[in-house]
Design a protein that fits this description.
With 450 residues, the protein is α/β, with parallel strands linked by helices. It has 20 helices and 13 strands.
Length: 450
């Protein structure tokens, strides 16, 4: 009897193993999936592999590509129609706070956890927790990300770090700043390092949410400041806290002493262009921006750039970094969700994501095994400090903001206040941030947490 039981166990294990090794990628063959892409190198990588996907799965892919400046407006219109088109779409993490509450996004957990629909080699645990967790939320405003349904899966992300011109810093006797004090000292000393038109530190400055999201929010969180909190059953702004005032005063002085004279017009593009043209000595922004600028032939300074983690305030040792993550999600109104899941699964699995960083232009792989892949490690050897920066930063990289339905409105108002502070329009930082808190609290007042 005992022998029979053992044989049955072995038989079961063999059967499970056989099934595991025979995942049917063609189970939705004959279906057609519509996909909406933002115009981006990550989308280009996926599009280039669509013929291979169609051959392997038998699923036809119909896709459209829309420039980023009007991508989300178009996507919002399409999702709100509840027509089911597109079946799959690219998204960031902040959009989850807008699209999941009204039921526009499908909960992917039911697919991930279903062995009949997900390849046993998919290995969800291989994703860096802070990256995939940024796309997980319980849909309660004020609750942090990381719990609740999985609304999307990452295809590539950006952490924030320093990218610096090693040749310039070496010539002036400076090393990569590791602390905020060192950043202030180094960036200020490098202002006009080669005369008029050159300056120490490139950071974003337009009246737009994107000014707050990269280096500013990374530094803000490293000071221990938070944007919002739940108090007495209401979401309230905390932008006038002691930590926030201290950090903001530092940032304003840093921009005034070491930033571009036209900082208030600076977006991702101007910051990267100035680093690549030897106008800026240091960039504090997305690591991918510095990485792209360092591609052979991509800029005048390619090959001279190096990378370092975000500098920390005195007394701090844990590195936090704010995250941007391009992801793919499923339309909850899709009529062919199983086929849509095959598409999402294929392009977030290890084989494609390895291709995307080894042979394509993706930079930060969301999967640990892909980052550790010897071919990727060999590739980043020529990008001095990149591997060390990534390793030291990735565990603290996630969304540092508090989920709320007015994210873009609040952060744009925040950026406007920052501009006015740099322009000297307030008597004190405390006064400016007290006024900003009132504006934010008024916008948040109608959120019902009951």
């Amino acid at each position: 009897m005992r022998k029979l039981a053992m044989l049955l166990v072995v038989a079961c294990l063999v059967t499970v193993s056989a099934v595991a090794g025979q995942f049917d990628w063609k189970q939705q063959s004959g279906k057609s999936v519509s996909v909406l892409f933002v115009q981006h190198p990550y989308a280009e990588g996926i599009i280039g592999k669509i013929p291979e996907f169609e051959a392997a799965t038998g699923i036809k892919v119909n896709y459209s590509v829309i420039p980023e400046e009007n991508y989300f407006d178009k996507l919002t219109t399409m999702l709100s129609s509840r027509s089911g088109d597109p079946d799959v779409f690219m998204t960031g993490a902040y959009q989850v706070w807008e699209y999941s509450p009204p039921g526009y996004m499908a909960d992917l957990d039911k697919f991930i956890k279903d062995p009949s629909k997900t390849n046993p080699d998919y290995d969800f645990s291989d994703f860096f927790p802070g990256i995939v967790g940024a796309l997980k939320w319980d849909r309660v405003p004020g609750h942090k990300i990381g719990t609740g349904p999985q609304w999307a899966l990452p295809v590539g992300f950006e952490t924030n770090c320093l990218t610096y011109n090693k040749e310039i810093l070496d010539s002036k006797g400076f090393k990569a700043p590791a602390s905020i004090d060192e950043l202030i000292k180094t960036a200020t000393a490098l202002n006009k390092f080669e005369g008029e038109g050159t300056y120490g530190l490139a950071v974003r400055g337009t009246r737009n949410w994107a000014t707050i999201h990269p280096a500013f929010m990374t530094t803000y969180s490293n000071y221990g400041a938070v944007d919002l909190a739940i108090e007495n059953g209401k979401i309230v702004s905390k932008v006038n806290s002691k930590e926030s005032v201290e950090m903001t005063e530092m940032w304003v002085k840093l921009v005034q002493a070491a930033g571009s004279p036209t900082w208030a017009s600076y977006t991702w593009y101007q910051c990267g262009a100035d680093l690549g043209a030897r106008k800026a000595a240091i960039l504090f922004d997305a690591d991918s921006l510095g990485f792209f600028t360092n591609f052979p032939g991509a800029s005048d300074q390619a090959g001279k750039l190096a990378y370092a983690p975000p500098p920390l305030p005195a007394g701090k040792s844990k590195i936090n970094a704010n995250l941007w993550v391009w992801s793919i999600a499923m339309n909850a109104s899709s009529k062919i969700q199983d086929a849509a899941w095959i598409f999402i699964q294929w392009f977030t699995d290890k084989p494609y994501q390895t291709f995307s960083v080894v042979d394509w232009k993706a930079v930060d792989p969301p999967r640990k095994s892909v980052f550790e892949n010897p071919k990727f490690q060999e590739k980043i050897k020529s990008y001095e400090g990149f591997g060390d920066m990534f390793t030291r930063t990735v565990d603290g990289t996630t969304i540092q903001f508090t989920p709320n339905p007015y994210f873009f409105e609040l952060t744009t108002e925040w950026a406007a206040t920052l501009q006015d502070l740099v322009a000297g329009k307030y008597s004190s930082t405390q006064t400016a941030l007290d006024e900003l808190k009132v504006k934010m609290d008024n916008a948040l007042a109608d959120i019902d947490l009951e």
